[in-house]
Design a protein that fits this description.
Blueprint: H1 2-62, H2 67-78, H3 83-98, H4 102-113, H5 120-140, H6 147-155, H7 162-182, H8 191-202, H9 208-223
Helix pairs in contact: 1-2, 2-3, 3-4, 4-5, 5-6, 5-7, 6-7, 7-8
């Protein structure tokens, strides 16, 4: 009888020890999960708080009359992550375009477009603007050579995005014309520009505005 009791006691003790050990593990896991959850909440709050601060800084900067202070604030915001970093870089681009700091404009565009978390639609929109801007810059500054950079911007425009197909086709045509003009080549004898012109004019999806714009350039190049 004593042996049976002793056996039962030993068994109960083993069960209790087993549960106690497992309970320690469970409690430890729960504590780790709670700490991770709390850390995430603190991080999320910090990120939201930081975005709010960046938002206030950005819109306050927009009201500054002192352009130097405005530029300093935009530069500060541009080094951070997130939406206001992109906006501030775009503001710096406008500022430096006006001041003809074209190498810096190029660097700023490349900084934005190299961000890993940028959606394809944003990349296409920014690359389109960059390509149009640098074609204009190239025409007004023949001593500079941004042709390869313009081509890179055009390549970044996503072919699968319907809203950018027209612009990409027009930019290809404009770049081809730019190369012809800069190198004093014959427009009428260039096969690439002829193919691009025909693609645009025969396209059922290309807007009439783009067709009209391209056709005016085409006629000017042929008869002037």
């Amino acid at each position: 009888m004593n042996n049976n009791q002793e056996t039962k006691l030993n068994f109960l003790l083993s069960v209790k020890n087993f549960i106690r050990e497992k309970l320690k593990i469970i409690i430890s896991i729960c504590i780790i999960i709670f700490i991770l959850f709390l850390s995430f909440q603190i991080f999320s709050y910090y990120k939201v708080s930081q975005v709010q601060k960046d938002s206030i800084k950005f819109f306050n900067a927009k009201n500054l009359i002192d352009k130097e202070k405005y530029n300093d604030l935009m530069e500060e915001l541009s080094t951070k992550d997130g939406f206001y970093s992109i906006l501030s870089n775009l503001e710096l681009i406008k500022f430096n375009l006006l001041n003809k700091n074209f190498d810096l404009v190029l660097e700023l565009y490349q900084t934005i477009l190299n961000k890993n978390n940028l959606e394809k639609s944003y990349i296409s929109a920014i690359a389109t603007a960059a390509a149009y801007n640098f074609i204009d810059i190239q025409y007004n500054n023949e001593s500079m050579n941004f042709l390869s950079e313009i081509q890179n911007f055009i390549n970044l425009i996503d072919d699968n995005l319907e809203s950018y197909k027209d612009s990409k086709l027009e930019l290809k045509y404009l770049l081809a014309v730019t190369k012809i003009d800069l190198n004093n080549l014959s427009y009428s004898n260039d096969p690439e520009v002829s193919i691009l012109h025909n693609q645009i004019m025969e396209s059922e999806t290309t807007s009439e505005t783009i067709k009209e714009r391209v056709n005016k350039i085409h006629e000017f190049q042929l008869y002037n």
